[in-house]
Structures are given as structure tokens and as C-alpha cells.
Amino acid sequence: MSRIGKLPIEIPTGVKITLENSALTVQGPNGTLNRSIMACVTLNISDTLLEVIRNDETAATRSAHGLTRTLIHNMVTGVTKGFKTDLEINGVGYRAEVKGRDLVLSLGYSHPVNFAIPEGIAIDVDKMTKLSVKGFDKELVGQTAAKIRSFRSPEPYKGKGVKYANETILRKAGKTGKK
Predict the structure, then answer these.
(1) CB neighbour list of residue 16: distance below 8 Å, 6 or more residues apart
(2) Which CATH class is domain 9-80?
(3) Fewer CB within 10 Å: C terminus or N terminus of the chain?
(4) 83-164, CATH topology level
(5) Which of 141, 146, 143, 139 lies closest to 164 in space, CA to CA?
(6) What is the pLDDT of residues 78-96, one digit of tens each?
């Protein structure tokens, strides 16, 4: 039995979970999330708990058991608390600002990088070098943060670029001078 999959999910007050055929809908104070549930698992929904039960013992079902439970738990957490990922920009002249629904990044290129902020995502810029990506869909928050980081990944010599706030950049030694 999956250690993650067998854990029940507590449904907080104010969250409504509905299952129609294989479409799961989670509604909460922050928004509404939808997901298609695989046919190899069954959901047992009560007033305060949700359990994920697998239908058989095949390898595919066992692997989907814990995954399905985690995805549903992320949906419940997202519509109640939300998710946040912090990014830092390092480098001389590197900065970010929000203009309307666009994030404008100056990352050392000959042109500014314009990034359209997806629906359901809010980006806060603090001191032009610290970004916070917030939203209620964990996948979308992570994907947006990864996309912003990909515009200028941190390089190993000086650490210039966009990095996650908790990320450690392994530094390399530069060239040694001639003697």
C-alpha cells in the first residue's frame, strides 16, 4: 500500500468537492480547480474527508495511487491557502517590473524580455530584484517560475541570472592569472 496514497485528505470548511464521471472539481475561497481522475482509482468523499482507493494491484494503478492523492491535496491546499515561489535576480543592471499584465525583465540582453503573466497568477516585485509568483494552482505557479528563470539561468562563475530564493549556485573558480 502506498504510504502517501493511503493518507486521507481533510476537507476544510468552505471547500466544496464534486465528482462527476471522472471530472473532479474543487471550489474554495481562492478559486476553482478542475482535474480528470484516472479510472484506476476511486474517490470516497465524505463531509470532512476524502480517500483515494485503488481498484486493483497492477503496477500502473499502484503508481497512480499516490500521485492522484497528492494532486488532489495540492488542489485543496491551493483553493484555501494558495502557493508562492520566490525568485531573485542577481547581476549589475538586471531588474524586473510589472506593467499591466506583463512582466518586463532587463537581463543583460540588447532588448527587454516581456513575459505575459498567465491568468490566475500574481507577480509581486520587491526592490526590482526580488519576485514573488503567487497563485492557487501549484502546477501553474511552478511552471511560471521556471519559465521566468529560463530567460537567464544563473551562471556558475559570478552567479548572475534569475534563481530561486532557496537555490544554491555551485560556484566555479575562474581563470588563473599567468605568472
Answers:
(1) 26, 27, 28
(2) alpha beta
(3) C
(4) Outer Surface Protein A; domain 3 (3.90.930)
(5) 146
(6) 999 999 999 999 999 999 9
